[in-house]
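Lecture notes, unit on protein representations.

Consider one protein chain, 539 amino acids long.
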Amino acid sequence: MVTRCNAAGVKVYIDAVINHMTAADAGSGVGSDGSQYDSRGKYFRGVPYGPNDFGRRCKSASGNIENYNDPNEVRNCDLLGLLDLEGGSPYVRQKIVDYFDDILDIGADGKKMAETFLAGRLTLNTLSNVQSWMMLSNEDALVFVDDQNKQREAPGNGHSITFKQSREYKMATAFMLSWPYGVPRIMSSYDFKDDWAGPPPASPNQAGLCENGWICEHRWRQITNMVEWRNQAGNTPVENWWSNGNNQIAYSRGSVAFIAFNNYDGIMQTSVTTGLPAGQYCDIISGDLLNGTCTGMTIAVESDSKAKLFIDGSSQDPIIAFHLGSKVSNGSALPVSFSNNSIAGTTSSQPANITTSPSNEENTIVFIRKITSYGEKVFIRGGYGKDMPIPIKYPYMNLQTLKRKAWYQAYRDWSQGDTELSWDGAENGQGMRNGEKSLGSPMLWTSSNSGSNEYVPENTFGDHYWMWEVTMDCSKLPGGYFEFKGYSNKDGYESNVRQEKCLGETTSYGKYPINHVAKCGHKTVVEWGRGNFCIMQRI
């Protein structure tokens, strides 16, 4: 097996238990390699070990650890009846060395003998000094977030993060892969309810699927892409460390790769130095770079190497990461300019300097983040210029999906007969919900939490994001841009905003309008009443 793995470039590490042998009451028999043992007599002839090679310093009455707060018992007595080796004996130590030499001669790449665990909730701010915590040198350390043993520990102080806490697990794994220490090991496991449960009988399937009870952490996009991030970073040092002192950090690996974390419950919105050259980069946490185009969020790095970041701490993936290999080559934004004397529904000057325009109908999504009270509904109103509504269609498959959940009913009913985005509220003939008229084009409260009933895969940002999804003809909009505002059944119009350049755009909007700006064929994300937060992602 080791020879075949080495030939395929797969490293083999031995998980070695060297502090004890089998249980004292295991009896006698023959081991897997044919050697005889007698646990009651403390004879293991394959080593060989005899009675004098086991713990002689234990002071407990049973010979087992009876008081885990007594360091002498923990060091010198049997753990759960397992025969504790006399670690202070030169003979025992030499036999352990011989064992490891034999393992290395077989062709194994390394061994895991001991583990160091950090108990409690660490703050991200302290991680800049993580190197000083390490007990082993960089070249000797095998680092990991969890293993098969730690997965099965009962929750409590110091228990490991596992796939069952997927949000924290992805954050921990991303940090492990981004920090230049040790050889990282990625876990790939299966689901279980009982600690003793074995693996599922069927394979997890191919083509990136993970089924039949398998978890396949190594196939999660966030983890798979962070492996490439680490490969890109190579041996470059940690630079451009940034922390706000409140569980929000960012750093680069030289001028090759950059990552940011938000472990705070609120929003992380800041401009930081990335160390990377100017350009558009694909955030490899929220998407993939396919044929030069990013399926997730795109980050603009300016000529001074700075980038504006927005990370919602309530999202399932409160991380942004990119590297030189994730630089976007397609889908750059078009320049656009607006006047600043607009009112809701009126723009006196249309987008200028247009060189090309998108064509044909394309899927378009708008998210407005607004924390609402019970019974509150949010709608979107907008258009292109004064009294110029935009023809829209609600995706057929989307409506079919909405019919399956009662929570979607109002959105579904109000979207019937809604054929244009305008500033006028409901259209003649637009659907009603229990006799209540729509107040514009309906939006839907969504969550990025896959376990929530309100989860939609298009939302990768967090809770409280009201979503509007339609198709529209981008060729009818110069540059593909249009203006909009949110409208609530409790608050009416949101206040005027002065929208700055969106993340994912290469230029600002010149003279700011007082409405939000979105782009056809894109996912646009804004916050109610704020103009200094905006994200645009190509769909």
